[in-house]
Amino acid sequence: MTLTSTQCALNAYSGNKSMKVLLDTNIVLDKLAAREPFKDDVNRIFTLIGRNELTGYVTATGITDVYYILRKKLTDNDCRKALRHLFEALCVLAVTRYDCEAAFDSPLEDFEDALILACAEKANVDFIITRDEIFLKATKAISPSDFLIMWEELKL
């Protein structure tokens, strides 16, 4: 079942107390392209999302980036299928003018990272999971492996 925007909103604002994570584009690509050596950690994160232990988010602009990159290796139909499957697991955050303006005002130099951070703050996510070395220096950003280590410590 695909998560509707209403279901995503209810998860964000209801009694659903699962931790919220926004997945950066590189993480989504690791999943969909089964990229080594990253796929194992990413698959574990998606398993947690599938079990509703985490609520997963991606930005709408991240979806367009993923499509563009995957399209270089896959057919249009295969890209669309992969993204539709992704929609079954993740909530897609809209990107608005206000998010763009917040990104312009961000101390982060990389506009894309600043935009993801603005969307993460809007959705009150707990962490942004990324492998982007520069973005990892931002607040809320964590690598997949560090996130999983932290997750295991929280679950003890």
Order of helices and strands: HEHHEHHEHHEEH
Computed over alpha carbons, the radius of gyration is: 15 Å
Q: What overall form do the CA principal axes indicate? A: globular
The CATH C-level name is Alpha Beta
Major sheet size, sense and barrel closure: 5 strands, parallel
Distance between the termini: 31 Å
Instruction: Give the strand tally.
Output: 5
Q: Would you identify the regions where 5 or more consecutive residues have pLDDT less than 50?
A: 1-15
Strand content: 5-15%
CATH level-4 homologous superfamily:
5'-nuclease
Number of domains: 1
Model description:
The chain is α/β, with parallel strands linked by helices and 156 residues long. The protein has one domain (5-155): 5'-nuclease (Rossmann fold). The protein is built from eight helices and five strands, in the order αβααβααβααββα. It has a five-stranded parallel beta sheet, sandwiched between helices. It is globular. The model is unreliable at 1-15 (pLDDT under 50).
